[in-house]
Amino acid sequence: MEWIEREQAAKDRLVINKKSSSVKKERRGKAVILGTALLIILATIAITLFLVSKGLQSFVVNGVSPIEFISSTEWSPSNEKFGALPFIFGSFAVTVLSALIAAPLGIGAAIFMTEIAPSWGQRILQPVVELLVGIPSVVYGFIGLTVVVPFIRENVGGQGFGLLAGTVVLSIMILPTITSISTDAMRSLPGGLRESSYAVGATRWQTIYRVLVPAASPVLLTAVVLGMARAFGEALAVQMVIGNSRDIASSLVESTGTLTTIITLNIGHTTFGSLDNNVLWSLGLILLIMSYVFIIIIRYLSSRRKI
């Protein structure tokens, strides 16, 4: 009997050691996850506070009028004139126009891959979309500079540099984002929707535009907004083709500038803490505010998702 009691005691100690080891591993895992989450939150708060403090210095320290800053069209740092309206207009114009082109193409490609030709269509289009995602923005800009700009100059008019060239380049850049998210949205729809539609006699096209697209519309809109967010913050590729002027473009073939292009062009030529430098930080603050606006829109659209 004694050896049986010893064996049982050894088994109990082994079970206790295993439980203790599992508890320690679980605590370490929770600590690592909590640490990474706190790091991301702190980094976001730190970046936001830093950009807000730097962006407000031109108004608080240097006395630049916020109303004049966002409403004036004159940008002349040598005369201390800082009207950011042409760059704000340029950013919104090129973003909206590129979304108008890329959204129907991306959603159409997603419908083709999931509903029209789910087998061979996905095998062909999916690698193409992934390839477009991996291409660096400087390559897009270089292609736009050597192909799109000369094409517009010879066939449309103007110098080739302008809103149209920037729109074409950005449309291609945000197309993979819209296509990928739209494809996931269409693919995640319950199969019962399609079967119910076919059961009442609807055709494939009627099923797509009357049942599937409305059901996935919140996520499809989220895809478009995410594409617009990327377009609004893109700098290098747009800078290479948009012309970088300080005026509001009166047509698609006239050159203009965006918030990102004016920052990247001038930030290296200013002294940290000077008026010119602080004004560029204020432009960055506008970009940050717009990023938060895009996030709020995306969160709102996600909350409307019913399926």
Automatic annotation (TrEMBL):
Keywords of this entry: Cell membrane, Membrane, Phosphate transport, Transmembrane, Transmembrane helix, Transport
ABC transmembrane type-1 domain segment(s): 88-298
Membrane topology: Multi-pass membrane protein
Any one GO BP annotation for this protein: phosphate ion transport
SUPFAM superfamilies in UniProt: MetI-like
GO cellular component: plasma membrane
Pfam family for this entry, one: BPD_transp_1
Spans through the membrane: 31-52, 87-112, 124-152, 158-178, 211-232, 279-301
Job of this protein: Part of the binding-protein-dependent transport system for phosphate; probably responsible for the translocation of the substrate across the membrane.
Subcellular location: Cell membrane
Upper lineage: Bacteria, Bacillati, Bacillota, Bacilli, Bacillales
GO molecular function: phosphate transmembrane transporter activity
Descriptive protein name: Phosphate transport system permease protein
Location, primary (coarse class): membrane
UniProt record similarity statement: Belongs to the binding-protein-dependent transport system permease family. CysTW subfamily.
InterPro entries: MetI-like, MetI-like_sf, Phosphate_PstC, Phosphate_Transport_Permease
